[in-house]
């Protein structure tokens, strides 16, 4: 009788363990399905953003840059979701540092960010003249490997830590912060990144990710004090862009264009910009 009782207890324990394992497996599957669904949504929306921009700016901008954005926007979005680095910054850096993906290092080595071997690198290598002759650079099987290492580079080095304290849509702060942290020696590096982001409206990919995370919706729902409401129009000052005006007045760039009958993002100092209906 005792042996039978022991067998029954053992059987019950096995059923409980099997049930727990099944529940954990189902939970993991459900989480993965949710992640996959979010990725599909983000990529579908990014395609819409890209096609709309491409259609509106045909023959007005560098086609090589537009092609680069179309090819790598989803990778940049994925890295923003994972590492909280603005997609606009990743894309702008890739455009600038790989020459729209046409540099020798990008074409032959899939290295879009000029990432050098550094100590401990066990992967494939190529050699190019850079600051010194015949320097060692990493070679990747696909561009995504380069994008991933770029993200790891920024998240694993303490000198870039302060960048992650910025507002997640502050691409200007990131551009200036990268220069301050010593990422690039070119004093015009921040201006070049910002120009790419604003000319090609790369900030829209940041907004897409942040809206999916609820950040943009939370900002929109924040009550505005009556004395802080935007004026019906503003006068453009030095340094103003349509995007900066849109952010400070809680109106989209597309609405600003519609309200002011603008065919492009170009505005001039002293220009009157209507910011509300």
Polypeptide structure, described:
The protein has 277 residues and is mainly alpha-helical. It has eleven helices and four strands. The chain has a two-stranded antiparallel sheet with strand order 1-2. The chain has a two-stranded antiparallel ribbon with strand order 3-4. A hairpin with a 6-residue loop joins strand 1 (124-128) and strand 2. The radius of gyration is 24 Å and the shape is globular. The termini are far apart.
Q: Outline the biggest β-sheet.
A: 2 strands, antiparallel
State the helix count: 11
Rg measurement, Å: 24 Å
Total beta strands: 4
Mean pLDDT: 84
Judging from the principal axes of the Cα atoms, what is the shape? globular
Entry summary:
This protein has helices at residues 2-56, 63-83, 87-98, 104-109, 143-156, 171-180, 189-199, 203-212, 215-221, 242-248, 253-260; strands at residues 124-128, 135-139, 233-235, 272-274. With 277 residues, the chain is mainly α.
What keyword list fits this structure?
about 5% strand, mainly alpha, two-stranded antiparallel sheet, about 280 residues
What topology emerges from the helices and strands here?
Layout: H1 2-56, H2 63-83, H3 87-98, H4 104-109, E1 124-128, E2 135-139, H5 143-156, H6 171-180, H7 189-199, H8 203-212, H9 215-221, E3 233-235, H10 242-248, H11 253-260, E4 272-274
Antiparallel strand pairs: 1-2, 3-4
Helix pairs in contact: 1-2, 1-8, 2-3, 2-5, 3-7, 6-7
């Amino acid at each position: 009788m005792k042996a039978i009782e022991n067998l029954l207890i053992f059987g019950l324990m096995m059923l409980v363990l099997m049930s727990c394992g099944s529940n954990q497996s189902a939970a993991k599957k459900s989480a993965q399905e949710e992640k996959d669904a979010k990725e599909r949504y983000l990529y579908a929306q990014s395609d819409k953003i890209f096609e709309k921009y491409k259609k509106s700016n045909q023959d007005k901008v560098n086609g090589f840059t537009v092609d680069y954005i179309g090819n790598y926007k989803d990778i940049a979005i994925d890295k923003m979701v994972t590492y909280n680095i603005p997609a606009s910054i990743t894309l702008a850096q890739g455009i600038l540092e790989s020459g729209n993906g046409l540099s020798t290092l990008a074409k032959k080595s899939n290295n879009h960010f000029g990432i050098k071997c550094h100590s401990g690198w066990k992967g494939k290598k190529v050699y190019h003249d850079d600051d010194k002759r015949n320097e060692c650079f990493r070679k990747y099987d696909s561009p995504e490997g380069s994008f991933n290492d770029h993200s790891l580079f920024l998240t694993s080095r303490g000198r870039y830590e302060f960048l992650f304290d910025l507002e997640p849509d502050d691409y200007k702060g990131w551009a200036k912060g990268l220069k301050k942290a010593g990422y690039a020696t070119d004093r015009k590096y921040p201006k070049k990144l910002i120009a790419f982001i604003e000319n090609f409206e790369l900030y829209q990919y940041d907004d897409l990710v942040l809206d999916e995370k609820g950040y943009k919706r939370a900002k929109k729902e924040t009550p505005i004090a009556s004395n802080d409401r935007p004026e019906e129009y503003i006068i453009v000052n030095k340094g103003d862009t349509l995007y900066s005006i849109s952010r400070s007045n809680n109106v989209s760039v597309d609405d600003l264009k519609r309200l002011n009958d603008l065919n492009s993002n170009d505005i001039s100092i002293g220009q009157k910009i209507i910011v509300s209906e």
